[in-house]
């Protein structure tokens, strides 16, 4: 999706291991990711007693090395006092437990996100492999590809440090005083169950996490734990809510560049999903599996991780249409689901 009409006042992202100041007491660091989406942003807030870290990168050697460089360099003035994880995805909560333990820092997360993160670290071995194998088969993935997509299981727990066993809950509507500013927490569903964002009206700053990204459409996925879920309804509702925040904000996303043009971007994402819903209906004029819908919705050269996201995303659109009565699901004798327009 072209990011037209958005303004990017900070075109040069920080080098790995560096944190650049974009407002007094507010710094931007960036960590590498081993995916096609190759980086995640971290926002650092400075107070007299120390740093608050908002998100922390995936838990791997390269990210830990970049943290070491930051801790010894641009952050050396203070200890890390507070670690925030906006949502349970490993590129956001990955190093949180490691930092919390190292600095005896306080750990903040929305409740559903913390529960999900804790739960997923326990989900491994045969049970998880069976769940995901059944999931991909049900949606039309060829038998020889299912094994490759599922792998050996336990991916989540390998990508995060130990999720702390206690946390401080980030609550929708609460305000936290950080970096000399009042930040209002707003939580949203759709991309994750209860993702936290931070809005500072007085200084025109909005830390949007993954809920609003400038260059990519946040993944909205149905997962095997909640196969009839309608996360797209939650995501679309979050767009309506974020639109009310208004256009005076500098949006600080976790992927891509800081940008201005919040309502423009909300409009683009809404349009993207509306056109995708229409395309799903068109493709389902004859019965189609989710994999067949993916072939009509996404580029052909997706890697296995992207294919997994694509299946979840296509299903999010299909489930939304099923709930609206525009589409129905039929399951054949082999347990494969197909979707057809009503
Ligand atoms: Zn995410």
TrEMBL record:
Gene3D superfamilies the UniProt entry points to: Ribonuclease Z/Hydroxyacylglutathione hydrolase-like, Winged helix-like DNA-binding domain superfamily/Winged helix DNA-binding domain
Domain Metallo-beta-lactamase positions: 39-255
Pfam families documented for this protein: B_lactamase-like_C (PF21221), Lactamase_B (PF00753)
InterPro entries named in the record: B_lactamase-like_C, Metallo-B-lactamas, RibonucZ/Hydroxyglut_hydro, Sec-metab_biosynth-thioest, WH-like_DNA-bd_sf
Protein name, per record: MBL fold metallo-hydrolase
């Amino acid at each position: 999706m072209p990011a037209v009409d958005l303004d990017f006042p900070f075109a040069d992202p920080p080098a790995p291991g560096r944190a650049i100041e974009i407002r007094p007491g507010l710094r931007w660091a960036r960590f590498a990711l081993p995916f096609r989406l190759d980086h995640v942003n971290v926002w650092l807030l400075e107070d007299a007693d120390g740093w608050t870290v908002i998100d922390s990168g995936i838990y791997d050697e390269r990210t830990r090395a970049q943290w070491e460089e930051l801790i010894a360099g641009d952050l050396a003035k203070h200890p890390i006092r507070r670690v925030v994880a906006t949502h349970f995805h490993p590129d956001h909560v990955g190093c949180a437990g490691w930092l919390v333990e190292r600095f005896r820092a306080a750990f903040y997360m929305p409740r559903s996100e913390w529960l999900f993160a804790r739960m997923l670290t326990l989900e491994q071995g045969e049970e998880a492999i069976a769940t995901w194998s059944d999931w991909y088969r049900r949606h039309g993935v060829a038998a020889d590809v299912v094994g490759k997509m599922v792998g050996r299981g336990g991916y989540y727990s390998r990508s995060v440090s130990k999720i702390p066993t206690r946390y401080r809950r980030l609550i929708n509507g609460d305000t936290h005083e950080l970096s000399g500013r009042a930040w209002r927490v707003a939580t949203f569903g759709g991309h994750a169950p209860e993702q936290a964002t931070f809005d500072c009206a007085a200084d025109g700053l909005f830390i949007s996490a993954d809920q609003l990204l400038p260059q990519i459409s946040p993944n909205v996925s149905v997962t095997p734990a909640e196969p009839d879920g309608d996360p797209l309804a939650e995501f679309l509702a979050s767009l309506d809510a974020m639109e009310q925040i208004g256009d005076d904000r500098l949006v600080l996303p976790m992927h891509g560049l800081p940008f201005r043009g919040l309502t423009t971007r909300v409009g683009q994402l809404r349009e993207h999903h509306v056109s995708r819903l229409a395309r799903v209906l068109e493709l389902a004029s004859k019965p189609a599996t989710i994999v067949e819908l993916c072939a009509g919705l996404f580029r052909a050269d997706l890697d296995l991780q992207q294919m997994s996201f694509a299946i979840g995303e296509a299903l999010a659109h299909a489930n939304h249409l099923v709930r609206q009565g525009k589409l129905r699901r039929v399951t054949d004798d082999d347990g494969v689901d197909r979707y057809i327009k009503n």
